[in-house]
């Protein structure tokens, strides 16, 4: 059946043991995060080429958690049939920034890739290391809002509305 996941025959193990477990752990972490926080998602995209070889995504200075999800890297219609290498620079746990290639595209072989699970914490920089482009990147910018802060703000608004209604009733009774 096309598109169905291949399962190893009975008695044999998968070539990548632990991958399913890693995906389940990642999914459960994300699920717990999303239960505790409200995600706000915005689409983003950029074009890398001879004029613009770097694209920098910064986080807003609002003390909220931000994630950049890269979904698609594709060559534009005007791209020559040459190797185009896109790399990413992001802070690692040691504070250093080293570009890491994430896509190697060539028009006649692989003009586009779809990515799943490639997440970065801003600031993140995408760099066209090789090729003239145009190369298009697209994905999502997710901001996680703390539900507790949102609920507190919502309660404040409800209290203000209740106070306004009380003031209106008092004014009406006084007439």
TrEMBL record:
Keyword Nucleus annotated: yes
GO biological process: chromatin remodeling
Biased composition (Acidic residues): 155-167
Entry-linked SUPFAM superfamilies: Nucleoplasmin-like core domain
Localisation: Nucleus
Primary location class: nucleus
Superkingdom per UniProt: Eukaryota
InterPro entries: Nucleoplasmin, Nucleoplasmin_core_dom, Nucleoplasmin_core_dom_sf
Domain Nucleoplasmin core stretches: 43-142
Keywords: Nucleus
Renumbered residue ranges of the record's region Disordered: 155-175
Spans traversing the lipid bilayer: none
GO cellular component: a single term: nucleoplasm
Any one GO molecular-function label of the UniProt entry: RNA binding
Family: Belongs to the nucleoplasmin family.
Protein name: Nucleoplasmin-like
Source species of the chain: Aythya fuligula (Tufted duck)
Annotated gene: LOC116499338
């Amino acid at each position: 059946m096309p598109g169905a996941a291949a399962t190893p025959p009975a008695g044999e193990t998968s070539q990548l043991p632990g991958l399913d477990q890693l995906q389940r752990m990642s999914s459960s972490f994300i699920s717990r995060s999303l239960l505790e926080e409200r995600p706000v998602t915005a689409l983003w995209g950029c074009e890398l080429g001879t004029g613009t070889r770097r694209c920098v995504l910064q986080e807003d200075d609002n003390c909220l958690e931000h994630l950049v999800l890269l979904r698609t890297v594709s060559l534009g219609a005007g791209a020559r049939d040459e190797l185009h290498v896109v790399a990413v620079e992001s802070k690692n746990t040691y504070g250093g920034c080293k570009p890491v290639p994430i896509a190697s595209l060539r028009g006649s072989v692989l003009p586009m890739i779809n990515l799943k699970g490639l997440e970065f914490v801003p600031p993140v920089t995408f760099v066209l290391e090789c090729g003239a482009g145009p190369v298009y990147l697209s994905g999502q910018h997710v901001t996680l809002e703390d539900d507790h802060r949102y609920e507190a703000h919502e309660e404040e608004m409800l209290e203000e509305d209740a106070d306004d209604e009380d003031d209106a009733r008092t004014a009406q009774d006084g007439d």
